[in-house]
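Human
Can I borrow your eye for a moment on a structure tokenisation matter? Give me a protein, with the fold worked out from its sequence. Write it directly below this note and I will take it from there.

Assistant
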Amino acid sequence: MLFGAGATGARIARQLRSSGRVACVEVRDTRAETASRLVETLGSGTEVG
């Protein structure tokens, strides 16, 4: 689970996904549209929480 879908959160999410050790990253943000945008960008293995 990742809180914050801004620049830093996006970088962390990318690193988690590319590590091969995390099956799914749940992204949460105070602004739902920001979280949704990051999930769309990262694709499979991410979801809005």
Q: What stands out?
A: The beta strands are 2-3, 25-28, 46-48. The helical segments are 7-19, 32-42.
